[in-house]
């Protein structure tokens, strides 16, 4: 791992010397299209060993081995000219028969909106030679790079607007685990970013059910993702390949909001949706007209929620991220929430603490879990507490898998902790977390479908104390209260 880390650090240092690469997002984009071609070439080497008749979908002179493999090969202006005017130009216009080899289609899609930002052919050669130190056919190199790739993706959180493409992996893992997708179920992320939900779905089902090569093939065919922006699409495609999806043909570069809602029919329905739709941004002009009049809005998260409801099969399940604004908003937001609660059973809302998406976005967010096909009768809420001593999540103290342990434990043994004040005080002091409560549909309707219910126990936190000390403390408190009441009676 340390060797791979060193290679990537050296590459980033080389790129910083180039006048054409500006900022972390461009640096990552530049690195990943080059890595993509190296990974693709290493895969082809493996295929050639297995099948001597294998033929690459790429023209011979565009294969990584033939223009980048020789450390003493093209460099300087000659290499820059090749990359800009031959490699990119021809990969963007690559002709193919998708039925024969979908890999050519994937390459063309990846390069459709990718760019070479570097201006120095000499520095490009230096980067290429460092990349060639990684062998993606070696298990150790591949596993080490997987971990490092996740770290590279995480750096997007602080890369300006690019932060919207990355959802923290502890969060995606938790959502997938609670939704519990099965082998054979069609799973979709309609705004997949860098592919975190899809990767965790693959890993979850592999761990639970995959026994044979046929199972794995079936699994890879059921995972679907769509991403509008070119950078995250490139990152997601590479991510899928790194996680064993040989040809991620079910990952599409596109915009699911750009098609009229009524045109999504039975063939488009899915069993599971796991997603973090973009929020806090307007859609492109006219997109809202693809939706029924009562649901027209320019807020992307709300339009995606309408799309999610529409795309789920009966009994289909969803686990999604929504900002607080979608819970308490009025007008069109009320109409969307009414539709959600009438057509789906919103069984759980996990309220996340501040800073989960810092530094990209400081808005408060929630995890919404629902099943389509029956109306909501009650919603269970859970207030995910911040860890002891943490005021809010930051770039240096991000949310972790362990931070979800309390809600995991509560999930299958739910208790309503909306207690009377004295009971709540007692429960708090005997180490009950008091983070779960439920709300009836009647309460929600009385508030005009406002779902912004706060923890009735305030910011109660899990306290670990010796039970004997706790009982003594309660006894002293109650004795003190009784004494005060006696004195008040005497005064009366």
Mean pLDDT: 87
Outline:
globular
Q: Over all CA atoms, what is the radius of gyration?
A: 26 Å
Count the domains: 3
CATH class of the largest domain: Alpha Beta
* Percentage of residues assigned to helices: 40-55%
Beginning-to-end CA distance, first to last residue: 76 Å
Question: Could you give the order of strands across the largest sheet?
Answer: 3-2-1-4-5-7-6-8-9
CATH architecture of the largest domain: 3-Layer(aba) Sandwich
- The CATH topology label of the largest domain is Rossmann fold
Q: Major sheet: size, sense and barrel closure?
A: 9 strands, mixed
Order of helices and strands: HHHHHHHHEHHEHEEHEHHEEEHHEHH
Please give the number of β-strands.
Answer: 9
Strand-pairing-aware structural class? alpha/beta
* Number of helices, where a helix is a run of at least 4 consecutive DSSP H or I residues: 18
Q: Which stretches are poorly predicted, pLDDT < 50 over at least 5 residues? A: 420-432, 460-468
Fourth-tier CATH superfamily name of the largest domain:
Vaccinia Virus protein VP39
The percent range for strand residues is 5-15%
């Amino acid at each position: 791992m340390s060797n791979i880390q060193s290679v990537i650090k050296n590459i980033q240092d080389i790129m910083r010397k180039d006048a054409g690469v500006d900022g972390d997002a461009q640096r990552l984009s530049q690195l990943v299209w080059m890595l993509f071609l190296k990974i693709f070439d290493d895969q082809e080497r493996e295929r050639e060993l297995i099948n001597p008749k294998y033929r690459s979908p790429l023209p011979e002179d565009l294969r990584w081995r033939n223009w980048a493999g020789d450390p003493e090969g093209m460099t300087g202006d000659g290499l820059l000219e090749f990359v800009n005017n031959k490699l990119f130009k021809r990969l963007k216009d690559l002709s193919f028969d998708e039925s024969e080899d979908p890999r050519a289609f994937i390459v063309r899609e990846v390069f459709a909106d990718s760019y070479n930002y570097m201006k120095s052919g000499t520095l490009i050669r230096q980067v290429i030679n460092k990349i060639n130190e990684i062998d993606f056919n070696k298990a150790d190199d591949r596993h080490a790079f997987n971990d490092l790739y996740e770290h590279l993706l995480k750096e997007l959180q602080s890369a300006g607007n690019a932060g919207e493409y990355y959802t923290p992996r502890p969060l995606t893992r938790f959502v997938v685990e609670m939704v519990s997708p099965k082998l054979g179920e069609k799973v979709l992320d309609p705004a997949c970013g860098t592919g975190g939900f899809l990767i965790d779905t693959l890993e979850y089902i592999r761990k639970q059910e995959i026994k044979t090569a046929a199972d794995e093939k079936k699994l890879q065919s059921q995972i679907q993702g769509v991403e509008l922006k070119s950078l995250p699409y490139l990152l997601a495609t590479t991510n899928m390949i790194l996680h064993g999806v040989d040809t991620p043909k079910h990952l599409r570069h596109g915009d699911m909001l750009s098609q009229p809602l009524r045109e999504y029919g039975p063939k488009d329905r899915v069993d599971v949706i796991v997603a973090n739709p973009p929020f806090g941004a307007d859609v492109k002009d006219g997109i809202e007209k693809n939706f029924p009049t009562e649901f027209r809005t320019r807020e992307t998260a709300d339009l995606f929620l309408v799309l999610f409801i529409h795309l789920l099969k009966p009994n289909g399940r969803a686990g999604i991220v929504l900002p607080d604004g979608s819970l308490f908003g009025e007008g069109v937001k009320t109409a969307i929430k009414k539709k959600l609660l009438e057509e789906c059973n919103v069984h759980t809302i996990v309220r996340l603490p501040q800073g989960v998406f810092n530094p990209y976005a400081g808005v408060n967010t929630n995890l919404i879990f629902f099943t389509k096909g029956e109306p909501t009768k009650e919603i269970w809420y859970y207030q995910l507490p911040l860890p002891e001593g943490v005021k809010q999540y930051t770039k240096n103290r991000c949310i972790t898998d362990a931070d979800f342990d309390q809600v995991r434990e509560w999930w299958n043994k739910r208790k309503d902790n909306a207690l009377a004040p004295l009971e709540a005080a007692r429960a708090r002091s005997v180490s009950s977390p008091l983070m779960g409560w439920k709300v009836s549909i009647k309460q929600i309707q009385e508030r005009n479908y406002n779902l912004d219910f706060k923890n009735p126990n305030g910011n109660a936190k899990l306290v670990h104390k010796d039970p004997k000390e706790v009982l003594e403390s309660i006894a002293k408190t109650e004795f003190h209260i009784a004494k005060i009441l006696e004195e008040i009676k005497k005064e009366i």
